[in-house]
Amino acid sequence: MSQTATMASTPVTGSQAAVEPSGPRPKPFFTPKKIILYTTLVFFSLYYLFPLYVMVVTSLKTMPEIRFGNIFALPQTPNLDAWVRAWTSACTGLTCEGLAPGFWNSVKITIPSTIVSIFIAAVNGYALVNWRFKGSEVFFAILIFGSFIPYQVMLYPLVMITRELKIFGTLQAVILIHTVFGMPILTLLFRNYFASLPQELFKAARVDGAGFWRIFFEIMLPMSLPIFVVALILQVTGIWNDFLFGVVFAGTQNYPMTVQLNNIVNSAQGTPEYNVNMAATVLTGLVPLTVYFVSGKWFVRGVAAGAVKG
Amino acid sequence: MQHSVSIRDLSLNFGNVKVLEHLNLDIAQGEFIVLLGPSGCGKSTLLNCIAGLLDVSGGQIFISGKNVTWEEPKDRGIGMVFQSYALYPQMTVERNLSFGLRVAGMPKAEIEQRVKRAAEILQIEPLLQRKPANLSGGQRQRVAIGRALVRDVDVFLFDEPLSNLDAKLRSDLRVEIKRLHQRLKNTMIYVTHDQIEALTLADRIAIMKNGVIQQLADPHTIYNKPVNLYVAGFIGSPSMNFIEGTLDGANFTANDGTVIPVGSYEYVAGAPAGAAKAVLGVRPEHIFLGAEAEAMPYKAQAEIEIVEPMGSETLAWTKVAGIPVTFRCSSDIVINAGDKVTVGFDIARGSMFDATTEERL
């Protein structure tokens, strides 16, 4: 009490000291740091969002309106004709059935490859961390080395292998290739994640008598949701966006959405229908975009969890 | 009598690093053994070997008369409690407790009965439907003990079970573990680096250093008759005071020339012939003040340098034979830094070690 009294009686010099500091420190909104921070953020979001804006706006316009020139202008009479054409009747090479078949092909490729590759990689990572076997480190090193080799180098041998397996030009071939190529990065991801879980949990489960699969399914998997989400996003977006493997291994009737999109946009016949092209592109990008939006929170958490401990 | 756990000539190497070397240890039925040592001494490794979580490089392990050297952990008749509790986070307490039994395929009725009994013993019945995340540290450790309890094993293994708890809880649970041992009468092997836990809980303590058991004895012997300089320095807080010098017959001459009579000392194997370099060790509570000091074989004038009041007692620093020593006295005695006092001790209650071999004389 006496202390406050003496403080108050001290003559105040300057206007800043007029308020006796007490409670939470005031946090002014307009500080130089915040202004710079928000300016930068706003600038870069506009920079990245602008192309998307142009695409969406163009896809809602009619061709005469596009030819008029103002690509930044809002559509005079917005209509979804271009979207419907892109989905149902745009010409992808010889057929004119739109992107719909490609969409379903992509689904048929993405779902099995994602599930199979994530499952195998999770088991790999778990075995590498918890069931060290002779040469497990070497095995892991070789696996990681695989992720540094450019895909193009392996393309021709893979064509021969799938031909010998008699699956070249089928959905199975693309699924197999995606599963194999997802292995290095996914195994690394799962291995790091399982290494970050306490070893004592695994020991406790062993003392309790649980074996390889029981520990995997009952102890490890329920604790691994974040890293599964990361793997899911990586695989879904990676496989959905793939062009190279799709065009090489799938065969004409199984072309994924990306390949058909390319065929629409790069078709040499007639005048380019920009509105249809834009709509088709947005449609193709919609799946990875949705995945990011829905699971963004999990993604960040999982990446952080998988990053620790090499 | 058959040993509950018997370790014969056990060795373990990680590559070229020898963690355990030809280690032998026999543990009687119902005995509480504490493996005590600093981190990296191999005590946890030894426990993991007994549990079957590490493959040994050589030697044998017997549990309840059965050679379990090549057995899986679950077939060894052991339960284990870990430092980090290692509770399965996605399971309720009840399912944590019953996991091992469910894996073993035990009938539901019996699982229920065993979980109930363990929960009763550990007083965790109200927590059965909770997840580990919603438990306090002490409650978690209780559940971890319960997980070993339900399996109805012969041997309990504790790997630093109290190290993650705060001081208050640690002393509470320490008493509970002791009570549990008295009630169950199982063999317990307990790893810790906390000497208070070791001294309070153990029937016998095995002090380890660099993978070798230095001394295996009851707490009283370990404390009062340490077998070598390492054990003497490790056990006791504050630690034993050491004075280096030369031992010749009934006199010990410290390096600064002070002569300390040691005629009353009981040698392990007789006094060494002739003069020998030696280290004299006296525990802080065996150094006396004032009138009591006058009655001791060795007494000297000394000046108090620092006083540390601990509440129940007072620690003081002074110099004997030119070497800083601590001693302990009742907190009723008022002493201050700078006081001139008489201090004295009787070597009969102290220890002497060979300066070169560091073994007890």
Report on the structure:
The complex is a heterodimer of chains A (310) and B (361). With 310 residues, chain A is mostly helical. Chain A has two domains: 32-79, no CATH class; 103-256 and 287-307, MetI-like (MetI-like fold, Orthogonal Bundle). Chain A contains 14 helices and no strands. In chain A, α4 (81-88) crosses α14 and α6 crosses α8 (171-196). The longest helix of chain A is centred in the last third of the chain and has 34 residues, at 274-307. The radius of gyration of chain A is 28 Å and the shape is flat. Mean pLDDT of chain A is 86; it is low at 1-10. In chain B, a hairpin with a 3-residue loop joins β17 and β18 (313-320). Chain B is of the alpha+beta class and 361 residues long. Chain B has helices spanning 43-51, 93-103, 108-122, 137-150, 167-184, 195-201, 219-224, 229-234, 290-294, and strands at 3-14, 17-28, 32-36, 58-63, 66-67, 78-81, 155-159, 187-192, 204-209, 212-217, 241-248, 251-254, 259-261, 276-282, 287-289, 298-303, 306-309, 313-320, 323-330, 340-345, 351-354. Chain B has nine helices and 21 strands. The chains are: A mainly alpha (310), B alpha+beta (361). Chain A binds chain B through residues 198, 200-201, 203-210, 214, 218-219, 222-223, and chain B through 48, 51-53, 72-74, 78-80, 82-90, 99-100, 103-104, 147, 151, 159.
